[in-house]
Amino acid sequence: MAIQVGDALRRHGIRAVLTGGACASLHSGGAYVSADVDFILLGHVTQAALDAAMGSVSFRRRADRYLHSRARFYVEFPRGPVAIGGDYRIKPVEHRRSRARALVLSPTDSCRDRPAAFYHWNDRQSLAVAVSIARRNRVKLAAIRRWSVTEGAEHRFDEFVAELRTARGKRSRPVRTRRG
Questions:
Q1: DSSP labels for 15-79?
Q2: Considering the entire predicted model, what is its pTM?
Q3: Of the candidates 20, 60, 108, 111, which lies 20 to 30 Å from 83 by C-alpha distance?
C-alpha cells in the first residue's frame, strides 16, 4: 500500500520519499510492521495538492494524518529534510511494484536508519530490523560503518556486524566492512 500511496503522490507531481518503519518493512520483507507510513516531501507542496493526491487513493486527512477506511495504518508527512542521523546526502531510489513506483530510501539507507535507535537508545528491535534488512538485501556495510563512526557508534556497529554474522549462520567467516 505504501508504494501505491507513493505512486499517487508521483502521479500528482509531488516528490516524496518513503522513510522510517514502513520503508524498513518493505526492505525486511515484512519482518517489521509499522503502524504508520512516513513520506518526506521534497520541496513545497500545498495542502490542497496533498489532499487531492491522497484522496485519489481514498485517504482522507484528519488533523496531520491521512486515514483510509480499510487500512490499519495511517500516512504522515514529517518535516524534512531526508536525513539519517547527521547525514543529509541521501539519494532515494525508485521502487516498483507492478505498475506503481515510488521513491524510497535505499536498502543501505534504510538499514542505517534502523541502528540509529539502537545506537542512541539501545533499541534492540531496531537492531533486529537492521539485521533483517541486511540479510535480505545487498547493503554497503562499509558505508554503514563510516556513518556509524561519524555517529560516534563504531563499537555498536561491531555489535550489528556480529548479529548479522550470527543471523547469516557464518560465524567463522567475517563480514567484510573495509575500514576507512
A1: -EEEEHHHHHHHHTTTSS--SEEEEEE-S---HHHHHHHHHTTT-EEETTEEE-TT-SSEEE---
A2: 0.88
A3: 60
